[in-house]
Amino acid sequence: MSNKSRLHLPHVPARPGETPDFSYVQQSPAGAVPRPEVNTRARDMLSLSTDLVRVLNDDGQAVGPWHPHLDAADLQVGLRHMLLTRLFDDRMQRIQRAGKISFYMRSLGEEAVSVAQGMALRPSDMLFPGYRNQGLQVVRGIPLVDLMSQLLSNTNDMCKGRQLPVMYHSRANNIFSISGNLATQFPQAVGWAMAAAIKGEDNVAATWIGEGSSAEADFHHGLLFASVYQAPVILNVVNNQWAISTFQGYAGGEQRSFAARGPGYGMAGIRVDGNDFLAVYAVTQWAAERARTGGGPTLIELVTYRGAAHSTSDDPARYRAKDDAEHWPLGDPILRLKAHLIKIGEWSEERHQALNAELEALVASSWKEAVAFGTMTEGPRLDADTMFEDVFKEMPRHLQRQQAALRQERS
Amino acid sequence: MSNKSRLHLPHVPARPGETPDFSYVQQSPAGAVPRPEVNTRARDMLSLSTDLVRVLNDDGQAVGPWHPHLDAADLQVGLRHMLLTRLFDDRMQRIQRAGKISFYMRSLGEEAVSVAQGMALRPSDMLFPGYRNQGLQVVRGIPLVDLMSQLLSNTNDMCKGRQLPVMYHSRANNIFSISGNLATQFPQAVGWAMAAAIKGEDNVAATWIGEGSSAEADFHHGLLFASVYQAPVILNVVNNQWAISTFQGYAGGEQRSFAARGPGYGMAGIRVDGNDFLAVYAVTQWAAERARTGGGPTLIELVTYRGAAHSTSDDPARYRAKDDAEHWPLGDPILRLKAHLIKIGEWSEERHQALNAELEALVASSWKEAVAFGTMTEGPRLDADTMFEDVFKEMPRHLQRQQAALRQERS
Amino acid sequence: MASMNMIQALNSAMDIMLGKDPSVVLMGEDVGYFGGVFRATEGLQRKYGEHRVIDTPIAEGGIVAAAIGMSVNGLRPVAEIQFADYIYPGFDQIVSELARIRYRSAGDFFAPVTIRTPCGGGIRGGQTHSQSPEGIFTHVSGIKVVMPSNPFDAKGLLITCIEDDDPVVFFEPKRLYNGPFDGDPNKPAVPWSAHAKGQVDEGYYKVPLGKADVVRAGAAVSIITYGTMVHVAAAAAAAMNVDAEIIDLRSLVPLDVDTICTSVKKTGRCVVAHEATRFSGFGAEILSIVQEECFWDLEAPIARVTGWDTPYPHAFEWEYFPGQARVQAALKSVMEPA
Amino acid sequence: MASMNMIQALNSAMDIMLGKDPSVVLMGEDVGYFGGVFRATEGLQRKYGEHRVIDTPIAEGGIVAAAIGMSVNGLRPVAEIQFADYIYPGFDQIVSELARIRYRSAGDFFAPVTIRTPCGGGIRGGQTHSQSPEGIFTHVSGIKVVMPSNPFDAKGLLITCIEDDDPVVFFEPKRLYNGPFDGDPNKPAVPWSAHAKGQVDEGYYKVPLGKADVVRAGAAVSIITYGTMVHVAAAAAAAMNVDAEIIDLRSLVPLDVDTICTSVKKTGRCVVAHEATRFSGFGAEILSIVQEECFWDLEAPIARVTGWDTPYPHAFEWEYFPGQARVQAALKSVMEPA
Lengths: 411, 411, 338, 338
Ligand SMILES: Cc1ncc(C[n+]2csc(CCOP(=O)(O)OP(=O)(O)O)c2C)c(N)n1
Ligand SMILES: Cc1ncc(C[n+]2csc(CCOP(=O)(O)OP(=O)(O)O)c2C)c(N)n1
Ligand SMILES: [Mg+2]
Ligand SMILES: [Mg+2]
Fold this sequence. Notes:
The complex is a heterotetramer, with 2 copies of chain A and 2 copies of chain C.
Chain A: H1 72-97, H2 111-120, E1 126-128, H3 134-139, H4 144-152, H5 185-199, E2 205-210, H6 217-229, E3 233-239, E4 242-243, E5 246-247, H7 261-264, E6 268-273, H8 277-292, E7 298-303, H9 324-327, H10 333-343, H11 349-371, H12 397-410
Parallel strand pairs in A: 1-2, 2-3, 3-7, 6-7
Antiparallel strand pairs in A: 4-5
Helix pairs in contact in A: 1-2, 1-10, 1-11, 2-8, 4-11, 5-6
Chain C: E1 2-3, H1 6-20, E2 24-28, H2 44-48, E3 53-55, H3 60-72, E4 76-80, H4 91-98, H5 101-104, E5 114-119, H6 134-138, E6 144-146, H7 151-163, E7 168-173, E8 199-200, E9 213-216, E10 221-225, H8 229-240, E11 244-248, E12 251-253, H9 257-267, E13 270-277, H10 282-294, E14 303-307, H11 317-320, H12 324-335
Parallel strand pairs in C: 2-3, 2-4, 4-5, 5-7, 6-7, 10-11, 10-13, 13-14
Antiparallel strand pairs in C: 1-8, 6-12, 9-11
Helix pairs in contact in C: 1-7, 3-4, 8-12, 9-10
């Protein structure tokens, strides 16, 4: 039967053993894409959704109308956050391999997305992150100890042991609880933003979804409700090209950019180089100002590459060319910002080494602190009684009885 | 709190007591929109999704590149189908008011959608209609008696009394079973088309959704799967401006056309005057040829107006201007085709009167035939035993026992 | 006190809560300008504004998701799903999100959303306007499930649900909107004005969750039921002249096990009744609890009265509906076990 | 006969059906090139082509809908939902469409779709990779529900399901993929090669739906169970030295009531066990049927052994899981009722 088939199947550029081929990635030269006024009507800037906003050129210079003109100190903070995110990821990956946590997901190569976007927003803006946005936690200053405690499900875990590793939250820092179910938070962020508008507050909501997850119904719900009510929300699609083993073409990326869905719903759509810290910052700032001043929602597609395995349960060598990430045409976000800072005389190899050492030490000392709250096998442990709490605000009779039954079972 | 609110709410042009205002309906002059080759890439004909394809001008002449050059005989058949659909609707409405059927939904003012589209497709193409596509049943030659029997849930009902009135189907005529749940069939049609492609067959699937229902997740699923697999399917949004009491702006129509969603997903999108028989025919024929020759899916938005109440359970005077329909700028599809036929010398008022009388008689005689199979209160009745059939192919034990229990209960 | 039908009582509850608490908002398909296809929100948009009573797109999943987001931002959304049959597109948001947010965030976030939805048959709605899916939701940890049987309870329960910090699915048996219904479609309709529970306090009051109502005290048999079947069961027992104790659960989660078991321990006989399909319906859970807690008191097998395990067919609405005959057969089986 | 784990047995079933029937297609997230996150479809795309083993977008609702459409056009899709926890976005298509098409079209259309999905805990998956939602589907008229407990049954049942003209949701207890599991996570893992049911016919064979398997005959008590709990229950009974009759249901809909009731009538005692949450779980339906049909034979209340009515917490996986201790407590309560 397969001989006769006329079913189109998206083209996957390189499987294991094949030569990486990123010619499908449509690029615009740095500085080439115009920057419309923030209150421009969506229909009057359609090309933003298929072009690629870039600020850093190949020489490490920041060019063009999207150049955000950040202070060097801010750029250094951005670099620090990205580096810390990466070192934290590396260490947690090794710790998972050593069997000390059950699961982990790195954001290797995508650090600029969370860090630049997080920095472009206000602390009172509400974040609805995905599982690969640890950079947002770093930007918002969540202590590594707290993140690690969550990974350990220990007595300091903000989730009280209920969630899989990486599903952090922080009420105090306006970071919503991450769900293991893909895409569900995308329309919730829109609801949050609708409430902000109803209350007449000018906070903005921001949410992140993988390009693979954009296939879910909730992506549509999010775009639709945001468009209908012109909600003050920033809707981000992190297009890191892969959804576990599935190439972005299977989420619709073969036919057109993900950013182009925005104009389809009558909202602004922008495609941006996700590995360009300055471009990501500028675009996010633009979208936030647009949302805050009543211009409505923006859909941002961040074009990046998943440098590592999907998770510690995954082996990408089974489905993509081994050296893929090295050929990724948009480079590494940390190296690119570092090169820019050096270029403008605000950074050096030596300072970078020193920062690296400082942050590695921070990660190491944090881990020590975290394990003192207990590990999967040693030290203090959460009381199993607590597993019956928070199903409801008050524990109903049947859960009280089950709690008692478990106590008996374990005695 | 409402004072402070910054939440945008779509503008509704005219509520009861206000003057109908259709200035929001973007029009193109008849003949003005170019007709691209059927294999044109979606991105190279984006404007089709925001323009309005029209063939019949105000003088009743057919003009421009979309003129399908149909034989007069075909046009007369089209007129007959549309008129029959309307007379059938009128009669069934009155019959419901008389309490002889439990529910009915008219397609007043939208007859060209189903009739022209149905005629532009092949009998072997599979239809996944909505509840307001009775014209498709007429085009495919389903006897009125059978439709009426379904409305009566009588012994001749193709649904064996299981479905609400108007939820017809016909396996022999390639018309799928209509669901009471909105939008669910939209992605099913795509799956059907994927199977056709897998089997290497060149049949096309077509499906219809209301603009209100396009808010459902299944609209997104349909567009996405159609785009990813370039399925041979025609996806139709019937934008009749209203979803019960809810104006199309609440489905996203305020910001941009529904057809524009197509290009957002990288597929062809066409906006067409849904009350222009010739334009609807031409666009559908174009989309069918595109699908059949491997050009992939097309999203068609048919701009029309719901001339009647949503259903017999509805009273539109509660939420829209009473004389709204009369001000609808795209006119009445039957009157427009009639005027065109008269213009080209292929029709007359006399022939129209005669046709009207003939079809009224057909409706009346069909009703007589249908009630002979039983009504809600009189005549033969389906055996209640049958209600346990077709839950599964073979009746499992628990249903056999329930069937027996009901028998006992009724004895 | 005023005479109200169930729609008016629900409307009154929402009216009061909109007036009392600026964080309460209503949302749903056709609920705003039009006032809802069953008119439950009639007049409320005019009174409180378009930003408090919000028309939405036809997307149940989006409605629930937006309501969750709004609730996390301090509002108390009351979302209407036009028919319970159409709650399924919102199922993932209800099960995976609404029900889980408090638990997975260890109480740091919570989502006080009330979902109102008309359920049940008896209005010739056919298979897609007649379903009673409450049983499914009772299996989902973290969601409360409520179904009133009369205007007085409907209003008091709805106010309680709106003020509750946990999410609730609030099922409204649409056959009861205009009057109590004893299961006989051929009898003239009885309005709520002729029923004691149609006398409703016009002000603010609450009916607690997790507290069943003993509608009729009796010694011979306990009938555990809720929604429309409360009235059908009462009529069936009266017609048979059985001294039945009739318990209207009102809230299924949390469940008032004490009232149920006290009754069964007293009567030694038990019938469980609901309109929903039988297999794995909520009746099975009630029966199980009674069996587990009252086994030694039972003098006959517990019997279930339910809809059949088929969709709700348009032509056979009354053959499907568990009317008095079905209740009586069950009562008989329990009173005189074979 | 070959030694196979459950993944290999499932793979073999799909391999055979792809080879035998050109209308069979597989579809799902990561099932194609990659062979599935649990490797159930490994090698099948290479063998049968990209058009028979189809990678899909991450949209469970779209997957089910497309499968329905394909089945109406003469194919027999086997759709994988990556985790049962992620079946809910497809719930409306399953409940309102897949389960209803035959009924509402009076048999003119039908949708022979098989939905495979891994369920259950024990792999440290936390609350969103551990759920057992089978009970919900058993309440939906028109869907068959299957859950094997071993490789031999898994293969034979899956072939039966694919050939079945009715839609089926086929739950795969993922903790059993690599070996039987007695509930003790601290014991070394046992592979299927050491188990009789790990010996699997390499060719085509079927295991019927609606036929339970008496895993162990016994006289003292009937344990009605399915999936992972078959092994836990057997180990618990053996450890207690109770002469239990252990019944593995295999298919929940249709349900083999005869085998269940014959057993309980013989033993007079009954324990129902599953991993899913308790309240309104499928155990309630089994208990209800036993109570209704075997009341006079019961010498003690039927006991349920289940997961708790909370989400499945990551840190307390083994406190949540109904292990041998919980089974033994139930056996004790049934053998020596208070
Ligand atoms: C509803 C749902 N379906 C499936 C999964 C399983 N799953 C987890 S991550 C993933 C891939 C997501 O890819 P993408 O959205 O591109 O994000 P990325 O991992 O690339 O950051 C899948 C299929 C899930 N968690 N939830
Ligand atoms: C899933 C679902 N939600 C809600 C409804 C109730 N409902 C029936 S028709 C309708 C309006 C649909 O409007 P539209 O799609 O524009 O079609 P039209 O009636 O205008 O032809 C609604 C809300 C339904 N049938 N199914
Ligand atoms: Mg991705
Ligand atoms: Mg409409």
